[in-house]
Design brief:
The chain is mainly β. The protein has two helices and 27 strands. The relative contact order is 0.13. The N terminus is likely disordered.
């Protein structure tokens, strides 16, 4: 019985073992089948965004504010010369002068001199600037042309006071020229010093309220004068009808004077004799053809670069003239333009044009006052 029992137990164990192996065998394929039917998860590579280059700023439209008539102008003004506006809102801006770190210029009818400084903009520098009287008056009564003497002091053509004066540190004026043969000037307009300290200036009638018809006009002509360092006033010419802007050639042997007369719009050149007098004038540039085309403005202020090229305001803007008087081109302001001046390092030309103050960067240089 015991043997029988042992056999039964052995059979039962064998049966259970067989069943266990079978279950293990059937369970393994089930796991495998489940693994096969489970959706496979793909491991996608992580995509990193490529750095995007910032878009380049849209360049300003290409604009060349120069009318180029001769290839020689390309050596004086860069391609795509930009006429940069600096300030506006004036009535008649005039007479700019560079003072070393800032620019001064006149607003003639408002009787003010304004100051423009890089990064700071516009402020009133001097008021009153050209008429210090008490009687009310209008017209072009303020300062006009401005320049500096050899000591760097500001010298002012004062329309309303009818004189050329130096501004002192205390704000007072020292007259440099007020009379010719004890007659009051009309209204000194523009001035320039030579290297010896002689002062040349023009005297048209624009500052008199009624101009040529004004009963206060004491001198019957419109003159060009020289004031010596000792204060002696000499009449150099009385032959121009409206002498205005004035400048010297680099060698100081030629005096240029603009004539702002609609019937004779021109720039004249006078040889300077050894005794300081002037020789016979010649027409340096005749602007009548430009004026007849309806371009705004007349010959007015002018400056000369170190090579003798003349930058002269006139019909249409600033005329660029060779030392021989050939019209190389025009900086187009398209508005009446009064005057210009070299500034900064001598390569920047500041322009007073009607209600505005403008500037252009050049490839040449002018002598700073």
């Amino acid at each position: 019985m015991y043997n029988h029992y042992r056999k039964a137990i052995g059979c039962l164990a064998a049966l259970m073992l067989a069943l266990g192996q079978s279950g293990a065998a059937t369970n393994a394929p089930a796991k495998s089948s489940a693994a096969k039917t489970k959706p496979a998860v793909k491991k996608e590579a992580v995509k990193t965004a490529k750095p995007v280059k910032p878009a380049k700023p849209t360049p300003p439209p290409v604009a060349d504010h120069v009318e180029r008539l001769d290839p020689a102008i390309n050596a004086l003004l860069p391609t795509n010369t930009f006429l940069e506006p600096l300030a506006s809102g004036f009535i008649w801006s005039e007479g700019p002068v560079w003072m070393g770190k800032y620019l001064l210029f006149s607003d003639v009818p408002t009787n003010r001199i304004y100051k423009w400084e890089e990064g700071l903009g516009i402020s009133v520098f001097l008021e009153p600037s050209g008429y210090t009287g008490t009687d009310p008056r209008g017209g072009e009564m303020g300062s006009n042309g401005l320049t500096r003497d050899r000591q760097g002091r500001l010298v002012i053509c004062q329309h309303g006071d009818r004189r050329v004066s130096r501004l002192e540190k205390d704000g007072s004026f020292t007259p440099l020229a007020q009379y010719y043969q004890w007659r009051r000037f009309n209204s000194p307009n523009d001035a320039v010093f030579d290297s010896k300290g002689n002062l040349y200036f023009t005297d048209p009638p624009y500052g008199l309220p009624a101009q040529m018809a004004d009963p206060r006009k004491e001198i019957p002509f419109q003159g060009i004068y020289r004031v010596s360092p000792q204060g002696e006033v000499t009449l150099l010419s009385d032959k121009l009808s409206r002498p205005n802007g004035i400048a010297l050639s680099p060698d100081e042997k030629t005096l240029y004077v603009a004539n702002s007369d609609r019937s004779n719009p021109a720039i004249f050149a006078f040889p300077i004799n050894k005794d300081g007098t002037l020789g016979n004038r010649r027409i340096f540039f005749d602007a009548s053809e430009l004026a007849s085309k309806g371009r705004p403005g007349l010959p007015d202020g002018l400056k000369v670069d170190i090579k003798g090229n003349v930058f002269a305001t006139g019909p249409g803007g600033v005329l660029v003239l060779s030392p021989q008087g050939k019209h190389l081109g025009t900086i187009k302001t398209d508005r009446p333009t009064a005057n210009c001046a070299w500034g900064n390092d001598g390569s920047v030309l500041y322009i007073t044009a009607n209600h505005d103050l403008l500037r252009v960067k050049t490839k040449t240089r002018g002598k700073l006052p």
